[in-house]
Amino acid sequence: MPRLLLPFVLLLAAAVPAAAKEQPNILFIYLDDLGWKDTGFMGSDFYETPHLDALAASGMVFTDAYSNASNCAPARACLLSGQYTPRHRIFNVGTRPRGKPAHRRLMVEPGTSVLDEKIVTWAEVLKSAGYRTGMFGKWHLGGNPASQGFDVAIQYQQLSKVGHYLPDGSYLADALTDKTIEFIKGNKDAPWCAYLAHFGVHTPLQPKKGLLPKYQAKKPGKLHHDVVMATMIQAVDDSVGRLLAELERLGERENTVIVFSSDNGGYGPATDMDPLWGYKGTYFEGGIRVPLFINWPGVVAPGKRSSEPVIGVDLHPTLCEIAGAPPPDQPADGRSLLPLLKGEVETFGVRPIYWHFPAYLESYSVFDEQRDPLFRSRPVAAVRSGDYKLMEYYEDGHIALHNLKDDIRERRNLATEMPQKRDELLRILHQWQDETGAERPGRLNPEFDEAAEKEAVRALSE
User: Fold this and answer.
1) Do 276 and 311 fall within a single domain?
2) Domain identity same for 221 and 121
3) What is the pLDDT of residue 371?
4) What is the count of structural domains for the chain?
5) Which end of the chain is more exposed for a tag (fewer CB within 10 A), N or C?
6) Domain of 361?
7) Which residues of 128-153 are buried (b: 16+ CB within 10 A; e: fewer)?
């Protein structure tokens, strides 16, 4: 057990038996690469998510919810730790440089690929507060989930080695749901937290075959039309329906908080986040804005939608407060959402939220002339404060400033028109980087070849 937990573990131990019946269960459903518009409740015109839509309608939907990163490992590290990327130093998937060396102008900060066990996750806090904790699906943080707060940990690779199908032909989303239901049924006498981190809808794009005829016969939407993606999304939604049915059968539905979100934007070649610009891997809104709702019967009034900007690190203090557990003694970057959920406040006021990506992420093989043909993201940091979002690119010092209220698609750069706002946000961003120890890329890459970079862009543009 991490040393930082000890001071409050002893305080909680005596109170756990008396409080256990009053603590709500927590079902956290976390999807992989589900885009901001990929559900019915967020506006898809082709994908079908009736169970998620019903839960969203009877809870609070956050329309301006963000992941802490545009790809999975750093997003998950922030989620579990409640800390921004400079603190835990998981910046990318793995630590190797991405893309061709001749195309990278800067040396990247490798960071780490393992979440430090000294960092106290919300799972460890809940476990110390008397919860039984289970993790089912994608961990992607190195190490062992069991050493970071999970009593039961089943990673999807233990079930499937070939994507979304198991050796017996069953579908991975169904198998992970089976394991989650087993966990819930086995812990009826204590509060539990089930973290169902689906591998869906990540590549490889493999349809749930029985659903193909339905979507092949369906009229394509203007926004969405990918048949395979539609089956994968419905498979996850069907999973949610099965979980809800089991909670009702056990009499646990009214005492269960359900949190639903995704780790980053959608997979660009198969879906669309319009009117947002960008997709998974970019730090435009389409790469980092994600669906989020929290459903808590009797606490969260139904039919609520909040435009408050919230971010993944906020879920650590939120889950701790739901469980009635004190936060660990470590740097914390998030803010509990309970005041919003309970209707005590409508806004936190202007609160900056941040991103830091001192690395590269190569582009998809399919060229899109509207975006960078070589990289989905180059080294960049960003801050959103109120309606304004600023991005600072490290290769050339380029600054982009956008008013998201007037220009959600981030097409009009206001950096020259609004120098005072630009400098204000740049100062806020740099101060935050200093406080968190963020390393700003600046070392030139000796392997960079400007001529080779230009030729690669030219070839891809033809």
Assistant:
1) yes
2) yes
3) 63
4) 2
5) C
6) 353-461
7) bbbbbbbbbbbbbbeeebeebbbbbb
CA distances from 342 to 122, 318, 320, 331 (A): 21, 12, 15, 26
pLDDT at residue number 18: 36
The CATH number of whichever domain residue 16 belongs to comes to 3.40.720.10
User: 318, 341, 364 — which closes off a domain?
Assistant: 341
Integer Cα distance of 86 and 435 in angstroms: 10
User: Which pair of tokens denotes residue 260?
Assistant: 């639903």
Quick check: 232 pLDDT over 90?
Answer: yes
Same domain, yes or no: 289 and 359:
no
Structural contact between residues 376 and 282, judged by C-beta atoms closer than 8 angstroms: yes
What pLDDT, on a 0 to 100 scale, did the predictor assign at position 2?
47
Bridge partners, residue 260, by sequence: 29, 293
Residue 36: per-residue pLDDT: 98
Which residue matches tokens 């956050």?
62
Mean predicted confidence (pLDDT) in 273-282: 95
Q: How far apart are CA 353 and CA 313, in angstroms?
A: 10
Q: For the CA atoms of 272, 275, 276, 279, what is the dihedral angle to 10 degrees?
A: 10
**How far does CA 399 lie from the centroid of its chain?**
25
Alpha-carbon gap, residue 462 to 409, rounded angstroms: 26
Alpha carbon distance 427, 198 (integer Å): 38
Q: How far apart are alpha carbons 1 and 369 in whole angstroms?
A: 51
Residues 144/31, Cβ–Cβ less than 8 Å: no
Q: Indicate whether 396 pLDDT > 90.
A: yes
**Domain membership flag for residue 348:** no
Q: What is the DSSP string of 382-439?
A: EEEETTEEEEEETTT--EEEEETTT-TT-----TTT-HHHHHHHHHHHHHHHHHHTPP
Domain end, chosen from 341, 364, 391, is at: 341
